[in-house]
């Protein structure tokens, strides 16, 4: 019998001290083996939250007064800690979240890359200088931190998304109170430990683990100066409304219903490989995952056959096993919600174009597995557009297909969504590419690569109702994590 690692202890990080919680027990389980507890502790109470906000509030001015290069050096040291420990952290991430070991280790390294990017912010321009219409004057635009920033993060990237919010928050001189998704608390503890080991001063980052109500209490807190969130559309909109009611800026990165568009001249093997990865890697649990496929009717059958051939070799199972491509959903509620979405789509006229194999769900200790599923939606334009699988984000391994008569119609179908996060276009024709850039209304457009994936040095975020507030990453991050002061600068003796 293999020896299971014992459950790690969950604690909260407040004002530089690791504290036990006082609320109900909170445990994260392995979604591939729900009988296995990965980490356990007690939830933080609102009293912990209050002290976390007070600690951040007391710490931020000194942190903001620390040179940006010194703040960055802490982030760069934390990146080194994650790189050093990425094998172990990757295994913990795969056991707690359910993505494959390769993806999990990759995510830890990605978090390190993000910390390094913001760690070097001191070497980049720190504002702007304008001419003045008056003699003897220059106009400067300088940036200042918001103060105490709340960070609320989702389960699907337990360390990379926290890093891409916390790193810019800290680099620009804010102090943070962080509430991670309660399904992946261990990786949150690991990121906080890495920053503590790197020498982050006490109070600058505070971690409180608990239920969603803790996130609501955070946005309602009178001493909060900003809140950044990634997660579901419903919760994001509620937090944004609560922030607006208090005059607190909110950045919310929410839903997607991202389309891959395969035109008739595409390299079909390349497209099939990329659509497979976009739709099914991480079990489709990415806001950037490909959940809609628009394929030119002239190549649709050929393309779908190539996709099926690849899906036949796509293994679903324990994500820490070799040879597995896709793990479970995060929990039973997620698996049930995806299942009922598929049932509704079928009842509305969708046809099962492919369904893979997944470990049995009858085993009481079995994981929250679902098979990779491809649905072909009704050809009738109104019925296709109205189908649940075309409109709603399932956040699971389900791809919905519609056929288009040429590029023009394909782009129209791709735009048929309230969301506009990312899209992927497959074509070899530069004229079609230029047309896609003009016509497809998304925040992130991939040409001949899958709809997911993002580099830290360029903006990330959606068009339409996918996001609220400034975009993330790259030069965009400062739009949320700082405000500007415009300085009319004149000498004392402008003669
Ligand atoms: C990616 O495409 O690699 O929650 C990252 C999400 C996004 C991150 C996607 N905010 O899935």
How is this structure best described in words?
The chain is of the alpha/beta class and 495 residues long. It contains 16 helices and 23 strands. A seven-stranded mixed β-sheet has the order 15-16-17-14-13-19-20, sandwiched between helices. It has a six-stranded mixed β-sheet with strand order 10-9-8-11-12-22, sandwiched between helices. Helix 2 (68-84) runs antiparallel to helix 4 (101-119), helix 3 (86-97) crosses helix 4 and helix 9 crosses helix 10. The model has no long low-confidence stretch (mean pLDDT 96). Bound molecules: 2-aminohexanedioic acid. 2-aminohexanedioic acid binds at residues 154, 156-157, 161, 230, 253, 286-288, 452-454.
Write the topology of this structure.
Elements: E1 8-10, E2 12-14, E3 17-19, E4 25-30, E5 33-42, H1 46-65, H2 68-84, H3 86-97, H4 101-119, E6 127-131, E7 137-145, E8 148-152, H5 160-171, E9 175-179, H6 185-197, E10 205-207, H7 212-219, E11 226-230, H8 233-246, E12 250-253, E13 258-262, H9 268-280, E14 290-296, H10 300-312, H11 332-347, E15 351-355, E16 373-376, H12 381-386, H13 388-391, E17 398-404, H14 407-414, E18 419-420, E19 422-426, H15 430-439, E20 444-447, E21 463-464, E22 467-468, H16 477-481, E23 482-490
Parallel strand pairs: 1-5, 8-9, 8-11, 9-10, 11-12, 13-14, 13-19, 14-17, 16-17, 19-20
Antiparallel strand pairs: 2-3, 4-5, 6-7, 7-23, 12-22, 15-16, 18-21
Helix pairs in contact: 2-4, 2-6, 3-4, 4-5, 9-10
The structure holds 2-aminohexanedioic acid.
């Amino acid at each position: 019998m293999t020896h299971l690692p014992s459950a790690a202890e969950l604690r909260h990080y407040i004002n530089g001290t690791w504290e036990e919680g006082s609320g109900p027990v909170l445990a994260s389980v392995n979604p591939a083996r729900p009988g296995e507890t990965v980490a356990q502790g007690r939830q933080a109470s609102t009293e912990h939250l209050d002290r976390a906000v007070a600690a951040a509030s007391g710490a931020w001015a000194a942190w903001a007064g620390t040179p940006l290069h010194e703040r960055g050096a802490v982030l760069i040291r934390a990146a080194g800690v994650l790189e050093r420990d990425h094998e172990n952290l990757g295994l913990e991430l795969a056991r707690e979240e359910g993505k494959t070991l390769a993806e999990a280790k990759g995510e830890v390294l990605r978090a390190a890359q993000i910390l390094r990017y913001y760690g070097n912010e001191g070497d980049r321009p720190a504002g702007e200088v304008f001419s003045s219409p008056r003699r003897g004057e220059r106009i400067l635009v300088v940036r200042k931190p918001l103060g105490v920033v709340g960070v609320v993060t989702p389960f699907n990237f337990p360390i990379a998304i926290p890093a891409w919010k916390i790193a810019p928050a800290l680099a620009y001189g804010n102090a943070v109170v962080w509430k991670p998704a309660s399904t992946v608390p261990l990786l949150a503890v690991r990121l906080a430990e890495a920053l503590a080991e790197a020498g982050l001063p006490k109070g600058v980052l505070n971690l409180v683990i608990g239920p969603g109500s803790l996130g609501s209490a955070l946005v309602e807190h009178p001493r909060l100066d900003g809140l950044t969130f990634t997660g579901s559309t419903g919760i994001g909109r509620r937090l944004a409304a609560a922030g607006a009611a208090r005059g607190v800026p909110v950045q919310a990165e929410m839903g997607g219903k991202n389309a891959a568009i395969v035109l008739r001249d595409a390299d079909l093997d390349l497209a099939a490989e990329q659509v497979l990865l976009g739709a099914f890697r991480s079990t489709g649990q990415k806001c950037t995952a490909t959940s809609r496929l628009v394929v030119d009717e002239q190549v649709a059958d050929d393309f779908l056959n190539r996709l099926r051939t690849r899906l036949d070799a796509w293994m679903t199972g324990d994500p820490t096993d070799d040879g597995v491509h896709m793990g479970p959903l995060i929990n039973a509620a997620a698996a049930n919600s995806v299942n009922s979405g598929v049932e509704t789509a079928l009842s509305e006229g969708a046809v099962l174009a492919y369904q893979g194999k997944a470990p049995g769900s009858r085993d009481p200790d079995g994981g929250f597995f679902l098979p990779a599923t491809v649905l072909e939606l009704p050809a009738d334009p109104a019925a296709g557009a109205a189908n649940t699988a075309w409109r709603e984000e399932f956040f699971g391994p389900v791809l919905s297909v519609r056929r288009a008569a040429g590029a023009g119609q394909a782009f129209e179908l791709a735009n048929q969504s309230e969301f506009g996060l990312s899209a992927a276009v497959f074509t070899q024709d530069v004229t079609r590419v230029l047309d896609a850039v003009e016509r497809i209304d998304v925040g992130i457009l991939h040409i001949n690569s899958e709809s997911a994936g993002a580099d830290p040095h360029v903006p990330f975020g959606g068009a339409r109702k996918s996001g609220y507030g400034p975009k993330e990453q790259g030069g965009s991050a400062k739009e949320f994590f700082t405000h500007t002061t415009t300085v009319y600068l004149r000498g004392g003796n402008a003669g």
